[in-house]
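quick one before i forget lol
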Amino acid sequence: MAQLPAAAPPPDRATATAVVSRNEAAAVVPRTVVAHAAAEDEQQQLAVNTGDLLHLWRLVDEKDGGPSWIHMMDRTLPTMRYQAWRRDPPSGPPQYRSSTIFEDASPEVVRDFFWDDEFRMKNSWDDMLLQHETLEECTETGTMVVRWVRKFPFFCSDREYIIGRRIWASGKTFYCVTKGVPRPSVPRQNKPRRVDLYYSSWCIRPVESRKGDGAMSACEVLLFHHEDMGIPWEIAKLGVRQGMWGCVKRIEPGLRAYQVGRTAGEAVSKCAAMAQVTTRFSADELVIAGPGNTEASSSSSGDGAEVGKVTKHWANSIPKVLMVGGAVALACCTFDGGLLTKAVIFGTARRFAGGPGRR
């Protein structure tokens, strides 16, 4: 009777890590690497993958290697505190970081609130969202590809976004990634204009209440955002500074209305149900690549170097005589490249017109 060949010994950790590294561009590998290698390879094909988790994780820990953050704003309401920072990378548009702390809010409800496109439109706390639809979804990982159309004032065309999004969970901390993804299957149109460079991601986690009772009953949302606004960067930065708080403070009443509905037992929307399909991981079990490995960060963040070069060129060619509505309307209607947020539109107008807050 023929003797069966002896089973090969299991690979040691170093060998297993090397095998996966050849197939894993994300540089985030659980220690149970052999068992999860096939699953991770499949997940890399998703619109949002572990490379995006790594990039957000580095941003939260301020280990992404980018420039230092410049403090912009600190505002407080009775049940909310908001802080914001900005930094200017060597190439690409300005990047923004903010911390919003909501008192008496759980990370789970805040997570669902920001994912719930239906409630955004129903409640109108985000009154620029005109349309939303789900193009793709993976019920195993919670990964979605959605299409947004955002409305703009009469002198601007609406903007279209194709967004990939997914949530990871480590304990009660949620890493929520949303970013622009290419989808040639969705034809481009003259109107609405498509925004290609878009990155907006959150870390949602419980924090201690400022009531001083030691309870972890507050929730912090760390947001990292940048996109190609399609206007000169200096004008955009002025507009964001002037208009940001007016837009942000609308979020809090929207969240409180969402909490009331959930407490009353209102049905959970499809988008909110997908927010509850998270990929769990342990931060202690991540094997992080060395500082020289920047492939995952550059592929996930969408730094838009080429876009930045073009925008800077446009900025240098704009006449200095542009004023108030002329500056904003020209930026909106001439520069086709991305979202001009409400903060930029109205904040810039206030800045140039000498409205409240002008230095």
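fyi The longest helix spans residues 233-248.
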